[in-house]
Amino acid sequence: MVEKKYHCPRCGNEDIVDYTDSFDCPSCGFEFDKKDCDELEDSQILSVEEKLGITEALDLDQKKNQTNSQD
């Protein structure tokens, strides 16, 4: 089986730090999930950090709504 060669969807750098399920780009400092790179176009891929930021923002919104509904 041929191993897929990954590249950074942000800057195109092919010199990445490869992990089992993800990789880091030393040029732009983002980490990406390999699954996303296998299934999506570069312009649609969010970094792990971006996905965590969205999740945290949604979680904060949910907590704020719960607090407001208790008032």
Please explain how this structure is put together.
With 71 residues, this protein is of the alpha+beta class. It has one domain (17-70). 41% of the residues lie in helices and 11% in strands. The protein has a three-stranded antiparallel beta sheet with strand order 1-2-3. Strand 1 and strand 2 (22-24) form a beta hairpin. The N and C termini lie far apart (59 Å). The mean pLDDT is 90.
Quote the distance from N terminus to C terminus. 59 Å
Give the C-alpha Rg.
16 Å
How many separate domains?
Answer: 1
**What is the number of E strands?**
3
Q: Quote the beta fraction.
A: 5-15%
User: How does the helix and strand content classify structurally?
Assistant: alpha+beta
Q: How would a textbook summarize the main sheet? A: 3 strands, antiparallel
- List the quaternary state of the chains: single chain
The coarse silhouette is elongated
Distinct helical segment count: 2
Strand arrangement, largest sheet?
Answer: 1-2-3
DSSP helix fraction: 40-55%
Question: Which residues form runs of ≥5 with pLDDT under 50?
Answer: none
Strand and helix map with partners:
Layout: E1 17-18, E2 22-24, E3 31-33, H1 34-39, H2 48-70
Antiparallel strand pairs: 1-2, 2-3
Name the descriptors.
71 residues, 41% helix, three-stranded antiparallel β-sheet, alpha+beta, single chain
Q: How would you summarize this macromolecular structure in one to three sentences?
A:
The protein has 71 residues and is an alpha+beta fold.
